[in-house]
Amino acid sequence: MAKHRQGRINDEMQKELAEILREVKDPRVSGAFISITGVEATPDLKYAKVYYSVLTGDKKDIAKGLKSSAGFIRGQLARRMNLRMTPELSFYEDNSIAYGAHISKILSDIEISEPDEDEGDGTEN
Fold first, then answer.
1. Would you say the C-alpha torsion 82, 84, 88, 94 has a positive or negative sign?
2. In Å, how far from its chain's centre is CA 62?
3. 120: exposed, middle or buried (C-beta count within 10 Å: 0-12, 13-18, 19+)?
4. Could you read off the pLDDT of 8-28 as tens digits, one per residue?
5. 96: domain range?
6. Is residue 21 part of a domain?
7. φ and ψ of 59, to 5 deg
8. Secondary structure of the chain in the HEC alphabet?
9. What is the pTM (predicted TM-score) of this model?
10. Quick check: is 13 in a domain?
């Protein structure tokens, strides 16, 4: 039962963080298109790993911007969610979307040739 609650908290934090990122005034964060791909909070809600994906902008600057605005983001999260303890946020870049696009491109580039009818299928007539 505790795992179900933890999953709901993680999902709700992900939704709220996506909205909060639109309000951040740091130009490194507000000027980039950032998507929150997942949140993993510890069971005691002291810490949370926030996974994000970036489509545009310098990834190092965005990481610095998120780290510097973590206090503001945490404060906004505390106001929006009714939790006894608001977790300390740490941000991690999630490359799974780019990796998936890369694999998809590789698979689409594969050419499958049809077997020649001259060679036969191993049966004789």
1. negative
2. 14
3. exposed
4. 999 999 999 999 999 899 888
5. 2-108
6. yes
7. -65, -35
8. CHHHHHHHHHHHHHHHHHHHHCCCCCHHHHCCCEEEEEEEECCCCCEEEEEEEECCCCHHHHHHHHHHCHHHHHHHHHHHCCCCCCCEEEEEECCHHHHHHHHHHHHHHCCCCCCCCCCCCCCCC
9. 0.76
10. yes
Tokens 């510890």 sit at which residue?
42
Q: Is residue 30 part of a domain?
A: yes
For residues 28 and 62, the answer to whether their CB atoms sit within 8 Å is yes
Q: Rounded to an integer, what distance in angstroms lies between the CA atom of residue 3 and that of residue 5? A: 5
Q: How many domains does the chain have?
A: 1
The token pair that represents 5 in the structure block: 């609650």
